[in-house]
């Protein structure tokens, strides 16, 4: 299966490996946050970071499709050499994300209170989560801008620039974490302030891109084209489908955290650590998903059927190789990593009792992450939406059936959710490939 290393395989790795390194710095920030809070001596801080992070992620991931759609659109326009369309795309996405950011900032207090009321955590956890969110929510406009910049660079296959943006922002976050917590002796608010400052550093990269990128030169665009409602509406309709898909995905995650919180602060802390391991995995696999977005989108833009099939096969092959590498490393060093995150022995026990479910998710979710990239690159937003709706419904039905105050059953439902999603996406891929539905010639 892995023989006959092709030029396309080299291209897949050329795009994916730097992105994997870059992507891992994103959950690594959360990992470091947990490690710093995990040695203060209380599960409250780990739980508070978990609750606060999942709420902010609920907002961000619901609109996280902005980066992927930027990549998908840009890669197709690059394939068809439409520079003017790229500038209009970026303008429209900036308008859409700016409007969303404005609404979130205006209604931030209501959003924070409703979110915390939903979470079934202890009063101490909720108090510290509120402190975290009151700072962190202000970073949302900067994060949307960062996603558009990175999505553009990935779509144009300027992977080096995408890496520089991502790694700079996230390493700055880690450095500031250390400074605020260990030098200035802040607590959870130090983690939030560090994130806020580091996210806004992306403005420097935005100004640099406007000055240096060639697509902004010698292109005449009228203001009426930027504010063209018909063109913006088309982007919004695709965004709505992807919003629904992302919203359901994050609803599953936030329900998972809420239910775990109802089992006590220790279970909440343990599940937070396990989810950070999951995010380290998912963001890594996303490197090949991004490769699929670029290569599939580019092949469709060029209307080359053979190149499309080769791109799908190549990105899938390497996704499974990386999943096996993750399994090997985590299985070998899992307890050591857990001890690095926290010195609380009761948390060690809970994490190690449930880590088998995480390993099974590594296997079952690989197909879903890979095929997300394939279908985003081909702009099959409705398909991704419908499959997520079905998978989400199955998850909540299973939770209703299995719910008996048992964290094992919660993880089993989570595992089945990813398995069903991967199965449905695999069936969709088979049908599209069999009937040549990616490119209509």
What tags apply to this protein structure?
mainly alpha; globular
How does this model look, in words?
By secondary structure, the protein is mainly α. It starts with 6 loop residues before the first helix and ends in a 7-residue tail after the last helix. The chain is built from 17 helices and no strands. It has helices at 7-38, 43-62, 65-79, 83-106, 108-118, 123-136, 140-155, 159-183, 188-200, 202-212, 223-226, 229-261, 265-302, 305-341, 345-377, 381-402, 407-434. It has one domain.
Summarize, please.
The protein is built from 17 helices and no strands. With 441 residues, it is mainly α. The protein has one domain.
Helix/strand order, N-terminal first: HHHHHHHHHHHHHHHHH
Give the beta-strand count: 0
Number of domains: 1
Largest sheet: none
Helical region count?
A: 17
Shape: globular
List the helices and strands and how they pair.
Blueprint: H1 7-38, H2 43-62, H3 65-79, H4 83-106, H5 108-118, H6 123-136, H7 140-155, H8 159-183, H9 188-200, H10 202-212, H11 223-226, H12 229-261, H13 265-302, H14 305-341, H15 345-377, H16 381-402, H17 407-434
């Amino acid at each position: 299966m892995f023989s006959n290393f092709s030029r396309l395989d080299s291209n897949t790795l050329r795009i994916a490996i730097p992105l994997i390194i870059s992507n891992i710095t994103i959950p690594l920030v959360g990992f470091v946050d947990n490690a710093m809070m995990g040695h203060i001596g209380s599960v409250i801080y780990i739980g508070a970071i978990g609750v606060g992070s999942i709420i902010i992620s609920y907002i961000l991931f619901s609109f996280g499709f902005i980066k992927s759609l930027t990549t998908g659109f840009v890669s197709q326009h690059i394939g068809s050499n439409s520079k003017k369309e790229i500038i209009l795309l970026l303008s429209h996405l900036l308008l859409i994300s700016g409007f969303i950011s404005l609404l979130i900032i205006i209604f931030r207090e209501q959003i924070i209170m409703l979110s915390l009321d939903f979470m079934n955590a202890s009063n101490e956890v909720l108090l510290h989560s509120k402190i975290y969110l009151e700072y962190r929510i202000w970073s949302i406009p900067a994060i949307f801008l960062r996603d558009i910049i990175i999505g553009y660079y990935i779509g144009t296959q300027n992977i080096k620039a995408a890496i520089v943006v991502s790694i700079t922002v996230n390493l700055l976050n880690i450095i500031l974490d250390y400074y605020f917590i260990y030098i200035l002796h802040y607590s959870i608010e130090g983690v939030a302030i560090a994130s806020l400052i580091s996210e806004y550093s992306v403005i420097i990269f935005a100004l640099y891109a406007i000055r240096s990128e060639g697509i902004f030169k010698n292109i005449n665009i009228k203001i009426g084209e930027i504010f063209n409602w018909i063109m913006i509406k088309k982007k919004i309709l695709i965004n709505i489908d992807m919003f629904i898909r992302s919203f359901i995905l994050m609803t599953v995650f936030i329900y998972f955290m809420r239910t775990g919180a109802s089992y006590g602060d220790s279970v909440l802390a343990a599940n937070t650590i396990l989810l950070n391991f999951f995010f380290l995995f998912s963001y890594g696999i996303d490197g090949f998903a991004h490769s699929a977005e670029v290569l599939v989108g580019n092949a469709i833009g060029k209307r080359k059927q053979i190149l499309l099939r080769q791109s799908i096969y190549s990105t899938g092959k390497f996704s499974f190789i990386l999943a096996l590498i993750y399994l090997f490393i985590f299985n070998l060093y899992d307890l050591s990593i857990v001890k690095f995150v926290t010195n609380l022995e009761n948390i060690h026990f809970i994490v190690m009792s449930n880590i088998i479910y995480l390993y099974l998710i590594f296997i079952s979710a690989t197909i879903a992450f890979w095929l997300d990239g394939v279908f985003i690159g081909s702009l099959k937003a409705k398909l991704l939406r419908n499959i997520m709706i079905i998978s989400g419904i199955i998850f909540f039905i299973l939770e209703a059936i299995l719910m008996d105050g048992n964290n094992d059953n919660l993880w089993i439902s989570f595992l089945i959710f990813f398995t069903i999603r991967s199965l449905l996406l695999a069936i969709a891929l088979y049908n599209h490939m069999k009937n040549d539905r990616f490119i209509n010639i």
